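Please go through this chain and its backbone structure tokens and walk me through the local backbone shapes. Keep your notes short.
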Amino acid sequence: MDFIMSCVGFAVGLGNVWRFPYLCYKNGGGVFLIPYMLTVFIGGIPVFFLEIALGQFMKQGGVSAWNIAPLFKGLGLASMVIVFFCNTYYIMILVWGLYFLLHSFTSPLPWATCGHPWNTPNCTQDFRRTCYNRSAAQPGPPSSTSDPSAPSYLLSSTSPFNLTSAQLLFNGSCTEAEGMSSPVIEFWERKVLRLSGGLDEPGDISYHMVLCLIATWVIVYFCIWKGVKSTGKVVYFTALFPYLVLVVLLAHGVTLPGALDGIIYYLKPDWSKLGEAQVWIDAGTQIFFSYAIGLGALTALGSYNRFHNNCYQDAFVLALINSGTSFFAGFVVFSVLGFMAAEQGVDISKVAESGPGLVFIAYPKAVTLMPLAPFWAALFFFMLLVLGLDSQFVGVEGFITGIIDMLPPKSVLGNLRREVVVAICCVTCFIIDMSMVTEGGMYVFQLFDYYSASGITLLWQAFWECVVVAWVYGADRFMDDVARMIGYRPLPYMKWCWSYITPLVCVGVFLFHVVNYKPLTYNMMYTYPWWGEALGWGLALSSMLCIPVTVFYKLLRCKGSFRERWQHLNTPIWGRHHLEYLAPESEAKLLPPAGAKSTLLFESVI
């Protein structure tokens, strides 16, 4: 049960709440569930199951688990790089959520009114009167949503940060389109972010944000420092509490005026959307991100399972929980957005947003229109904090497991206590995060979000995982290994997906985003300098190149013909627990000859 709760905590995160509902609305309402569910069964569940089963079978973390095909151990290194970057920048969303939470205990809420030191003369909170005055004179601005082909938007569980306040200024109301701005946008941009002019203008450090950053990392440290046992107990709360809050928010949301209109907008089917390629691409990218595929954390969690745990059944249960949460969250989100549209007298399409546009602008704005606004604001941001924390716990836990696996057991580093390794990791991430609490921190954050853990890197990772297991190690061979663990062979469709279908899906979506790549911009106005883009591609390639570089390095260092090198480097390195079912002739090859000095030929298993 600890494993189930940890996987729920990691895979069910902010992307389920702030991204799926918007994608469902944007891509034809209920019709979107058709490509979504199809992608779940041909892409999400097969890779999800592969990673969990691999960890459980090898009893090792995200790096050493690839001893199943040692030549491709770069897959483990790549996942470590990706999850390190994720751990580094994902926590900033929790920092902003904590900052909003601390400011939610005042009435009126600080983002509900103008007149604060951070507000400008253009600040206004009277949406309806100004909007009606303008609409009487001329038509309102057309509805605009984020560019569906933008890679960052489609490819990040914590994005889109291209969809920010400038776009909301255009979408949100007639008032903002006239050059006025709402207090919630000014609170977000001028108080929380304190945005500078660009990446080359870092500005001053926000010490309030530094304190929130320290508090968040301290919470993470003390929840994981003792290992998966302590993490498993914590995620019982962090995984289940958001569901309680979502139920409460839905019960309140459906009683608000306009809620039904919002839910209809969410589910209204548009069958013509099925013919658009973008709809299928959105479904694929959402699955790969919301299922946390390619980060190595699922492999690390699987390694703590009993060897005969039914991970096949777990994969389907977790997929149902993940996708069910996404669908349920849509009712919560759109009931509130429907109310917000009714209160402002605008169409729902002008308030239906995704990502931080929903969490830090649209929803806080909606809360200000409710009775008992501080209570609902505090409840929402506490849920946001808890929802993100369990993903952070498991991400850091997966990284720590991989690091400990790689440390030589008899070296000074290998003898370090786990608590020390966790502390070093947290402090290192904290130092990097200091660049994100400056006035130019948002530009740094978006750079990490757009490149380091983008869909391009994760799709590349998932493709090679399937290829290595199905074609290098052998799909039938791995199915036999799974049968030894759970007592029966999984459905043949798993083997077909690993061998053909899922790699083709990964390649198709990967090529789509490469072809439609656009240079990184912020706010649709600021374009990143060339050196900023170069830095971003450096972040992306730092993980992607781990796989080919490791393969070429090992082949060059090995001796013999290419065939001999390939055979030698793809011979699995078994752990002691594998001897229970290895054939006698296989054992003879692994154990030292009789009379020889007893030497273990296996890599250590934590």
